[in-house]
Amino acid sequence: MNRLKVANRELFFKLAVVALLMFGFGYALVPLYRAVCEALGINVLSLSERREQAKNTQVDEGRWITVEFDANARGPWDFKPEISQMKVHPGQMATVMYTFRNRQDRVMAAQAIPSYAPKQAASHFNKVECFCFNEYTLQPGESKEWPVVFVVDPKLPKDVHTITLSYTFFEVPGKKLASL
Asked: SUPFAM superfamilies from the xrefs (predicted)?
């Protein structure tokens, strides 16, 4: 019986040492993984830091562009930007929200068409995300809020200091939608 207690005690200590070694290995795994990834050039853990650096190196902080936001609705609905203007550095990613409300008592399909002023700014105004990319169906009284995520290209001519982004929201003709 005494021999069994000694054997159990030895086994317990061996298992405790194995558990401590496993904990130590797990704890050291993150710095080890980081070191291996850096050595191989696949530094996945700091990928977001690289994106941030790449984004920031393209921003022209010596210059401001005023972007004015305009909204026109061709029909009985409300459509407007949350702000009328914003100052951005060329290369800086920015977001503005637009709200839309269907005031009709029927379902409608609509889409927004953008326009730019001055005309030369159109090729330098890059939309990453925009509600104008899609057609939307809205129920009677339904409200939606949509983002426009954009970047003004640093190659925008130096004499352009203001860009007006204007959207016109049109009802899509020929859509047969059921009223509720």
From this structure: Ctag/Cox11 (SSF110111)
Of 108, 82, 102, nearest to 94 (Cα)?
A: 82
- What is the pTM assigned to this prediction? 0.62
* Pairing status of strand 65-74 against strand 162-171: parallel
Q: Decide if 78 contacts 100 (C-beta within 8 A).
A: yes
pLDDT in tens, the chain (180 residues): 788 888 889 999 999 999 988 888 887 877 877 777 777 666 554 444 444 444 445 788 889 999 999 998 777 788 899 999 999 999 999 999 999 998 888 888 888 888 889 988 888 899 988 888 888 888 998 998 989 999 999 988 999 999 999 988 888 876 555 443
SS3 content of the chain, % helix, strand, coil (to 5): 35, 40, 30
Residue with tokens 């920015």: 94
For residues 180 and 121, give the distance between their C-alpha atoms in angstroms, rounded to a whole number: 42
Question: In 41-158, where does DSSP find H-type helix?
Answer: 47-57
